Request: fold
Amino acid sequence: MDDIALAKLIVENVRSYGIIAFRRDGVITAWAAGAEAITGFSRDEALGMSVTALFTEADRAAGMSEAEIETALQVGRAEDSRWHLRRDGSLFWGNGVTIDLGRDGLLAKIFRDETPAKKAEEQRVLLLNELNHRVKNTLATVQSVADQVLRGAGVAREIRQSLTERLIALSRAHNVLVQENWAGADLRSLVCEVLGAYERQPSPLTLMGPTVRLHPSQAVSVSLVCHELATNAAKHGALSRQEGRVEVEWNLAHDGEGRRFLTLLWRERGGPAVSPPDREGFGTKLIRRAFADQKGGSARLVFEPDGLQCIVVLPLRDETSGEFGGDGVGGPAAPAPCDGAASA
Reply:
């Protein structure tokens, strides 16, 4: 069997891919069996037909077929993913590439029907949006009920406000997770979401560290810890003074078995003199216990005279499985405020 016969045999038997050829004017000159299986057009119907018949009315009006041909002729290939038309008028999500065959303006289009995957993705997005909406509503309801109950019980306004702020911190963590479709959260984005309210000019914030992805459950814990630290800094620490500064630095390490570990340092400078508190408040307890249930995890407060420090050590969970491990190694980044151009 010669090469041409072998190629023809392969093309005719690859039913999961549509393989067609057409001239630069769009007239179809070759139509493989896979294209018939996907589109419903037989070979006899397709030969001599314009390739634009596979494009929707909107795409035809916008000249998408001609633009695809022109791109392929100019640069050699044109990739696209879009809804296409079948013979019966139904739609399929076609992912493919048009290539210039280099023979008298002849082109080939190879495409695949990815409709099930596309619909599954749309359903996933729909469910995520519904989940996000419900979580937002739930947090708002909890906030309202808690405020009314505490107000009715005569609880001081400062305590009610503190609870409200913690619920808002949960909502901010949720915002970052929503932006990334609950696939995890970027640590720098999470910290900036919490600290953004404290930005000013010049910025009192400096963030430095490599790219670190957090599992959704850990993102919430990290967000709450940063909120407690920021709130304390604004009331009693470095952020309560114009000259005060907060530096947040972190690093990522892997052990011999590939498990990831995060070390994070929160350091305040330029604020009022610091001394250990007489008693442990709720915020301090939350920080200290936030990662206590994770083997090797800890958060430690150090009351240095020139500024509070918080040292966090956290074994990172894999974003998808929830198990400890994963790769997710990022390179170093220059120090930058939350509104800086440098990325973590």
Residues 296 and 315 are 6 Å apart (CA to CA).
